[in-house]
From TrEMBL:
Residue ranges of every copy of the Protein SirB1 N-terminal domain listed in the record: 42-183
Family indicated by similarity: Belongs to the UPF0162 family.
PANTHER family: F-BOX ONLY PROTEIN 21 (PTHR31350:SF21), SI:DKEY-261L7.2 (PTHR31350)
Source domain of life: Bacteria
One Pfam family linked to the record: Transglut_core2
Identification of the protein by name: Protein SirB1 N-terminal domain-containing protein
Native species: Pseudomonas thivervalensis
Amino acid sequence: MKPRQAFFDCLHRSPPALFEAALWIAAEHDRDVDVPALLKDFKALQQRVSHDLPMLPVSELGQPLLRRLNDLGFAQDDFTPLRPRAALLDKVLARKRGQPLALGLIALELARGLEIPMVGVNFPGHFLLKVPGADHLLDPCGGRRLYPNDCRELLQRQYGANMSLKAEHLVNAEPMQMLQRLSRNLRQLHLANDDYIAALIDAERVLELGNASAADYLARASLYQRLDCPNAERFDLEHALMLSDDPIQRIRLTERLGHLPPNSVVH
């Protein structure tokens, strides 16, 4: 089974195998990634984390779990500029450095195995975690508690003072949403590192996961433009045009389509 097929097979399980699916994403980019071996090694990490957790009700173990991970060396990757290894889960497990989402996926899998209630939150710009029923969120990069004012400060630090905290920023993330976010992160990281083929692999996965936006089609169109594939670029620009609600963007997309050569048909 190819990595992309194995990835979707994980999503079709009940419940979806989120962590394994993320490992298959890494396997798409590196044929040497041994997913079964990584899953086996992960059990050892789970035992190490479990051994030093305090004797508390499982509903109170979310923050101690994240702090234990931090004690073991897991932290946010602050290398500049960021490399794809910050989002590829096999590399994050090996280096103990990664983006908040990658660290969050590791924490969620540990929590699942230890029966600690924990969910992901697709907070803009910085993935967060939450224990259901708690009055705060948790930063996967160390376990810091974030109350509403902290979330507001985090949001405005990343997007400016005019960005308002909304209820939609704090809702639970479904497995497919987290994997789509991971795919978008990798698409951007590969593009920033001039690996257009790898970025295209991620861009295709974003679209296959469904509910793609105009920005997602536009991102793949730009990759096709760099790879000199005008027919494929046209296809994605047309889809972006159909999905866009921005009048200015629609004008620019129409102009860009007008500059492409006529669609050629291969017999």
